[in-house]
Amino acid sequence: MTTWHDKAAALQADGRAFIGGERVWAKSEQQFENLSPIDGRKLGMVARCDSADVDIAVAAARAAFEDRRWAGKSPAQRKRVLVKFADLMQKHGQELALLETLDMGKPIKYSQSVDVGGAANCIRWYGEAIDKIYDEIAPTAASSLALITREPVGVVAAIVPWNYPMLMASWKIAPALAAGNSVVLKPSEKSPLTALRLAEIALEAGIPPGVFNVLPGYGAEAGAALALHMDVDCIGFTGSTRVGKQIMQMAGQSNLKRAWTELGGKSANIVCADCPDLDAAVEAAIGSIFFNQGESCNAPSRLFVEASIKDHFLEKALAKVPDYQPGDPLDENTVMGAIVDATQLKTVMGYIEAGQAGGARLLAGGKQVRTETGGYYVEPTLFDQVDSSMTIAREEIFGPVLSVLSFGDVQDAVRQANATPYGLHAAVWTADLSKAIQTSRALRAGTVHVNQYDGDDITVPFGGYKQSGNGRDKSLHAFDKYTELKTTWIQIG
């Protein structure tokens, strides 16, 4: 039987950019090494695109938009192509999953079930949706007819992170392409391979050359050039709050392009003493923070437990932690894999040291493991006796580190939960319906979960309050980012 390791050994990754329907190296001929966080193996060389390549890709996207080779197709025609795109993604699902796991270290079981499945579903859903959205007629006087129509914004730049490379790309490109835009996608330099393969699959599905382009490269080079480009009409970014602020500044400095950002998080998970199912709350608290190695912007990294049940809760939680010990990402039994690279490993370990130095009590984990593999692995880590002033309670760690805080009443929990510049996700566990509704209304977050965590569907918007960004991915609301509203006023009497 062929194993995932056998498939990995036979893989030949293509790191060339995808511009105008063709694979090409950067104009400068510069490249960078792509190393797997699983064991440090070299996956290949990747094109290091810069402003010269951005100019070429944007010109290709603009030409495709202006001649309407894609925008001019009817919604039903675009739907058929996008549905075929999704079908082909699933056909090539094992290849895409392997690329995802090798590139960023997540377990292969989740690359298949979550990333490939979720990305294909996203492409298909927006394809199916686009011919079911109606324009409007305004209720004007009888002497006029006012039409309100949606039009594609033009050339869309999408910059996506390394933690969910394929899923985050699909959240951007699916509504943008469905609406008739041309797209230039820049994946993270840490995980470029699935985005590049998706471009080939899109071409095979029937998306015309120039409509979907992919530029690998560094953020300070290719990413900044896209944000500053005068012929990019809109930019969608998912990543850190620090870089998101830079993206918005560059958008303003250039052509005032629309800039939509989904940024960092420090999500609060509040467990009240009247929680209806403590075991479910424990499972969600532990499973959600350690899923994807903690490299999730919506990870519930701050766990607030009512003081009267905290010791009992922690006892149950600590019994679950060993289930998430990191293992070989290419083993289908592994549930937690490798940290994406040495830089992120150093960042996570630095926060663990800061937690100990700051007075938090380390109850579990805290060490780098599997060092003999040459990869980057961190134990699932749990801190108790954390207060909201500590660094590990204030800053986004993006690793498998959980901070436990206590509270006296739910108002105290809400006050602490909201005392952060972020506002992405939150949760409350209580059997009291009134308390659940009042708390969810009081929490300043884009999504509030009640008696669960990570409930999700393509039909609901994803995004945050405050410095967690603006705009929303997913759902029909995403079309608001990638379309213009036009009023056509016709005098008829």
TrEMBL record:
It comes from the Bacteria. SUPFAM superfamilies: ALDH-like. This is Aldehyde dehydrogenase family protein. Pfam families: Aldedh. The lineage of its organism: Bacteria, Pseudomonadati, Pseudomonadota, Betaproteobacteria, Burkholderiales. One of its GO terms (molecular function) is aldehyde dehydrogenase [NAD(P)+] activity. Keywords: Oxidoreductase. Transmembrane segments: none annotated. It comes from Duganella aquatilis. The keyword Nucleotide-binding does not apply. Belongs to the aldehyde dehydrogenase family. Residues 25-487 form the Aldehyde dehydrogenase domain. The keyword Translocase does not apply.
